[in-house]
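dumping these here so i dont lose them again. two proteins, back to back, each one seq then structure tokens. dont judge the mess
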Amino acid sequence: MKNSKWIWTDDSGYNLVNSWVQARKVFQLKNVPNRAVIGITADSQYRLYLNGKYVNRGPARGFQESWPYDSVDIAQFLRKGKNIIAVLVHNYGIGNYQYIHKSCAGLLVWGKIGNEDISTGKEWKIRLASCFKTVLTRTSKQSGFQEHFDARFEDNWMSGSYGDSNWSQPHCMDYGSMPWPKLEQRGIPLLKEEIIFPKTLASKASGKCAKDYKNSVSVVELYSNEEQKWLSSDESENTAALKIVPSGKDKFISYCIDFGKEVVGSIRLSVAGGAGNEIIDTIVSESINGSEPVILGSKFQGSRVNFGNRLFLRKGKTKHEQFDYWGFRYLVIIIRNSAKTLNINVSLRSVGYPMEIKSEFKSSDSKLNSVYEISSWTQQCCMLDAYVDCPWREQAQWWGDARVQGKNTFYLSADARLFARGIKQIGTQQLENGLLYGHAPTIAHHCILPDFTLTWILTHWDYYWQTGDLALFKSMKDNVHKTLNYFQEVTAKNGLLPHDKRYWLFMDWAGLFDEGYPTLYNLFYLVALEKVVKLFKLSGDNNSVKLYSKRMKTLKSAIEKRLYNKGTKKILAGLFWNDKPATQSIPHNYALAIIAGLFPEHHDDFARKQLLPLIKGEREHPVLPSPFFMFYIFEALKKCGYNKEVVDCIRRWWGDMVDRGLTTTEELWNAKAGDNSLCHAWSAHPIVHLSDILLGINQEKPGWKEISFSPEFSDLEYARGKVATPLGVIESGWEKIEAGRYKTFLKLPKGITVKKGRY
């Protein structure tokens, strides 16, 4: 590793915005080994090829101070004699919601194959990839750039017969050079990849291309400025192999292809019959309205979404695979300026975290079964090299979302690696005052969220509770102390946390009171202090236990004294800056009070008078919790024993998503397609609640060493399923024998005991 060099075409800090580089090395092998592991990384991203065949992509997102690398076994791609290792590297040249740019770019490879050292250095050849256009529109304000690839300038640079004598020697930097002083293993598996194909052809359109279409820097804005008259199509047509009649000079033909559900991956096109004058634009969408794909264009939504690419065809055959991966359901293919019949093969290299799904849920209620299925699929779509809010709009590692996603994942697979990696990454990007960014790595300096910082504290407990392992918490206790010092320093004389106007206090999309001293914010702080006291006690740090116990007691007293009306038994929304009470009725506060154990004598009143009317209605509350915050509402109701009511709400509110044809859970209730995400795993928590309630499986001790078994029979005929744990899979279920009589079963792996429940 240390003998390898970081390489680039020139000074690695020059002209990097949306830059593309191709690098290659030829080497000889007398024999092909059974195993050939190399190390590879790049800033920002790479795609690795051996002897013209795709191997993998990487690295995982990270920080240059300890940049991630991949270990890849390339033995299956090697051959006796001449071999060619080729790498395509892309550098954003800017920061975004996944990456912090440090004004440098580079590729680093190391390893020996037999006697051949393939480490990057002067022996490699390198060049700028001229087939990629660089001055282009961003795909969204949170992500990178559109990709415009001109196949007319592409050559056979990955082949053994190719001559690279006119390529340059790379500019080299020693291993350990800034901004990459050290490397770290990615800590999670390489992404799972497979080739999948579209399902049906939804619709077609045709028309005249807009003026200057050949020079467009945004295919989405071009599309928005053209008149597309979409007509329903024959669904029997083969969508994976399209035969395209000529569009005519300066005209287009468009196809809207349905993959059948939300997918995540890189679009692959193989085109035969090109004259060399054609252009193919591709645009992705999560929804369709009648026959028309929902593509709003950046003028009509907050994130300025422009997810589209362009391919300039060469004469004869053109093959190209998109570099980035996106989340979508519908793919719009626009063929421009074609004079000949084209044959286009369409596929997708799907990507995702290689999570082994071990859970199951089946019941006599088909609607609940469908809710569980779309929730599970949503969670899988939102797991990449990090937990991401959505695979479409930004792919950012939002940590408020990740807390819910972690719980979903534990039930689905018991895999805690992505969660642990995220805890470390969020804790790494810490302000001097102790606060954390809402997602990381990121350059979104307006996304410093004190409430998500508190959520980060809570996820330390979640990880320990799932695994029984304190090592992660102990390794980050200095960051935890620093974080909690911020909250102590800003606490007002009245004992409450104020809204620090320098930062975004999110809490939920529900229009919550956030002036002065918000109650919900203080309740989250109280819960975080309670968990941190437990973690330090388990760690044997008595001084920290005393310190944070005192702070917890002081805060609890201030909440009870100032944010609760004993006469009306109602929790205030908060206090204005002048200490006057804010009386907005906020169900969130009652849920958090129950979770925090505040006013225990009133918990049933809180549930019956504040939470049950909310979930029994039809999403009409003036301060309606988002699907995200309903996780906490349900947790509170379960704690109070209102399990049937939670199931009924899931059946109706999430069942509505099923009824509307969604294949994943949406970001907001009745999300606006093209603006809001239709695949958001912070809404996928029915996975947890249906397992807790209908399967009756509830964790009672850290590491799942003890559970309780109390299934809620509800109004169903049967329910059965599985929940994953670190100790193995728990199987449970029940069926109705006759009115009031049920047969149950429970199968536990070794190491888990059951606490006596109702059955």
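---- next one ----
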Amino acid sequence: MCFSVLNSVYRGARQRVLRPISLIPLFLPTTLSSAALGQETLPGITIGRSAPTADDEVVVTPDRIEEAQSRTGASITVIPAAQIERRGSLGLSDVLRGTPGLDVYETGGPGTQASVFLRGSDPGQTLVMIDGLRIGDPSSTDSSVDLGSIAATDIERIEVLRGPQSALYGSDAMGGVINIITRKGEGRPRGSVLLEGGHYGTGHTRANVSGSEDRLSYAISVDALHTEAFARYGYRIGRPLTIGDGVTPLPPLPPNDPTNRTGATARFSYSLTEGLSVEGGFTGYDSAIRFDNPYAFDSADVFNPANHQHATFAQGYMRADTELLDHMLHNRLTLFANVTNRDIWRTESCFDANFNAYTCRMGFRGKRRGLEYQGELRLGKYGVVIFGAKNETEAAHLSQDPIPASQNEEHDFVQTTHSGFAQHQFTLLDRFDFTYGGRVDAIDKNQTFETWRVTAAYRLEETGTKFRGSAGTGAKAASLYQRYSQYGNPGLKPERSEGYDIGVDQKFFGGLFSGSLSLFDNRYNNLIEFGSSSACTATQVFGCYFNVGRAEMKGVELSSEAILVPDELRLRVTYTYLSAKNRETERTLLRRPYAKGSASLIYTIISGFDLEARLTAVSQNPDYDYILGRRVTMAPYARVDLYANYKLDERLSFFGRLENISNTHYEEVYNFGTPGRSFYGGVKFTW
């Protein structure tokens, strides 16, 4: 019997509502998710509204069309390219940290499994997209995205949309949406090469080229990272630790647990006529890591080099955009597909007929393909109607090698989802921006679910004030594993959520100070759990999946920026307060700290030389000791990081990072290591 199956049984016995990540928080079959789009319309066009001003951020995720951020009633944060490049050399985890309402957890440093919690939702309840396409692995148990496997290639920006968004994007968008948008080529050809090195045997290289010529635009980027890292489990943990039996002391830590990761992205577009263009894109990642197995019952197996994973991800799309009816109707048709392949070798992970454990390979392959149409009907002063339909098929294949002759560990599952959506967006008196809409998703042999969303924004441009609010519902369909595995239940209902938020955005003193405040309340029901239930069949003696859980998340998000000295000194501050409760037990959900925040001071010493000091603070955080079977509380902590960048001229720049200056000992996941004081530096050449 495969260890992954036994783990699912054990997880169900331990877990309650919205237990974070997986039972063993390290490289289980829990990665990525599937199904939806949301990309920009033609560059520079805003529909049914005034064009954005030069200093107004343009976003595409809140309403599936390009619009000024000041005109949306949704709660959104935009992370620009400069910040991604400064903090993202080791991956996207460091880029996303500090975003209001968002928590990121790594199980043992760079390259390991990294999970995201948005407004307290479970990792599988946040939709992650690249260029408007859902990424994920249909063969995983909860469809969550492993951010640790994603390289920060040539990214233009990341848009983090908070609150239930299933009315726009379908399943998984219960907590919100993270849209990673890669760069589109424009202007004369340009390129860059980045070289970086630092602590823990880290070497990093990134190269990209982009531009446009006549009707063709292109952007290509590659990224490669190697780090020797450190022992994933037990590194810089001061208390005594044991192996899986809960008694035997943990053996000496190995000197490293290496990670190798590469990534590549490409976007091409060609304008056939003034009203017709085509675009194609590719995204690919490859990662090979070594990890630890602290849950082994033999000391020699805990840090055995046999514990390793190789994962690949490839995604491609073709998209056609056309204008009809004298530019009143914009049409977009997208054909897409992706495949994820993961092979995991783990000691003591499989069992023979006599339940003797041995090392084996567990294979997970997920495929997705689909077609989506989106139309935008521009009605002048009556706004714009956005509508569309989608057909998507997911497939999963699970395997194990070697397997006992008496068992069959080859499994194949398939399901198709049919979706339709519509939204009306308009502006009244050039001050009141309003959207309302809904969506229907129908899944093979499963319950059809409907979702809705309303947003509103009222702008007082004389005072630099915007009042905003949103309300909507979210849904997450059961995964292929939850429906069709030997523990599955084909009749599982989708998980559901209902959320509300209100907020205000304010600018003072001609833009020298800006701030944003949001209050939110999200309620979840029909959450899927594992255990013994009347829903289980006679053959499901170990348990099955069933709908039962309830939870509530509410809190406050704050972000602000002040220009203390023009062109010299800026201050950025973020803060999140979160109350996340399991309504079945009335206990705080795991890995949801009640308070966290960051403060950055950016100083431009001389022209081209920027220095940023950043303080990150996190309150005490509940977690679970999976070896001793008990809840624990991780201590609060604060760490300081320093970033420097010097642009010598238009072609050459130097950069460096000093992380965790105070050498703070802290944990994101109980008993898993985090980096100590470390330095990274490099050079970037641009032409």
